[in-house]
Amino acid sequence: MAARVHHSIQFQRNTLTTFFFFSNPIHKKNYPSSSKWLSSSSKRSSSLYCTCSTSSKKEDKEPYVITTPLYYVNAPPHMGSAYSTIAADSIARFQRLMGKKVIFITGTDEHGEKIATAAAACGSSPNDHCDAISQSYRSLWKDLDISYDKFIRTTDPKHEAIVEEFYSKVLANGDIYRADYEGLYCVSCEEYKDEKELLENNCCPMHLKPCVSRKEDNYFFALSKYQKRLEEILEQNPDFVQPVYRLNEVQNWMKSGLRDFSISRASVDWGIRVPSDPKQTIYVWFDALLGYISALSQDQEQPSLQTAISSGWPASLHLIGKDILRFHAVYWPAMLMSAGLSVPKTVFGHGFLTKDGMKMGKSLGNTLEPNELVQRFGPDAVRYFFLREVEFGNDGDYSEERFINIVNAHLANTIGNLLNRTLGLLKKNCQSTLVADSSVAAEGNDFKDTVEKLVEKSKLQYESLLLSSACESVLEIGTAGNLYIDGRAPWSLFKQGGASFDSAAKDLVLILEAMRIIAVALSPVTPKLCLSIYRQLGYTEEQFNAATWVFSVSRH
């Protein structure tokens, strides 16, 4: 039967077109879903492998809670917010493969001065504006195959109830007081700035706009009270802030001494009212950070701080852009300690994206629209490029030429080519049917050892959030497979017949098992592509969704 299009990923000129997968999958009866190089009950040598099981996954009791930032709805989603969410999704998918009960939280931050201003500029009410922009995030996450579990909006009444309760606890602890404050305020950051951190003409170093002088009668949080405790957290738990150079940034900020910060606004109407003073609204960051906890209470009719906390707090990983590191690594843990709550386990600050080596901006006309990118190239190509090409934590650059070259070289020419040529040989010589056990075929085979080492390597890299390196290790399995099949030349062995034919059939079994492992190991990054590969190997979508990543160490 002629080949047919199954997935979109092969380059021609300046566009991506399609992968071609054969329409005849391997015969399911003769390539069983339970086949693997070493089963957990095997008496052979030690092994590390991916395995597929149709039984329900065993999950750790303690959930793995991962969060993206709650994205500010002053404008539709951009590539930076898409990048954060793609990365978080790949980590969440990997943790699910490891058998963890994952709670993946994302959402939108919908209060503050900028929101009211943006809504007025569009001629709409703040509520209508927030509804529209929040929905645009949900739509993009669907197009990008984002598998979130909770989507919290800070205008949700359940969230507001949690914020009010949290505020009251901090107030009762004596950490909120009223005072006048005068200083330079960045509207874009929604934050007062120290003069020493500003550029010429009092410009914000992040937004490059002049800060404005403001004087307000506000409520303040006693951040300075927590200086020593925060220093102890950073010293005793160096993994609290990652990567290490972000930890260094936080420690440098703290050396100059922490200052109390304003947690209310008298001049902002669009926000949650201060419980003890309805003339003021709660500062947008004091409000939004609580979304990570209030999201855990979404299924509760009568949300409370305690029931939310008992549903999964503390978070395992806050994944954020480096521009909001101070809020998450300094303000947030101090707020939590004031309320008597546990701090998150890790805050990871990733870098910024540029385009063709330049900072992106509407004024420069070089913005990168995630919706357009997904529509042109598909979600897997977008996900793979940014996770493979950007070293996670550092800044990264996008160029269309490199995007196309990388995706085609890796996904089409390495992985796609290996699958296509193997299935082609299988169809031509074996009528798409193999009666062989991959564990027997792999005995004493160096290729098996190579794959097992790469699987272990990629697992450790996923766990260490080295996402680019994990992609590279999985790709190396495909490269090793192509080299193996070139060296063995099964097309010649099939022609010789007899024992040579059987040897060639075993070679195909090995490669097809390697393809199954690639489909599991790369699924956190390219879920649709990997599902398509799994189906080509004769499995169902249910079997793919039940796949787990398993360590198995057996002894003689």
From TrEMBL:
GO terms for biological process: methionyl-tRNA aminoacylation. Residues 197-423 form the Methionyl/Leucyl tRNA synthetase domain. SUPFAM superfamilies: Anticodon-binding domain of a subclass of class I aminoacyl-tRNA synthetases, Nucleotidylyl transferase. Transmembrane segments: none annotated. Pfam families: Anticodon_3 (PF19303), tRNA-synt_1g (PF09334). It catalyses: tRNA(Met) + L-methionine + ATP = L-methionyl-tRNA(Met) + AMP + diphosphate. GO terms for cellular component: chloroplast stroma; mitochondrion. PANTHER family: METHIONINE--TRNA LIGASE, MITOCHONDRIAL, METHIONYL-TRNA SYNTHETASE. HAMAP family: Met_tRNA_synth_type2. This is methionine--tRNA ligase.
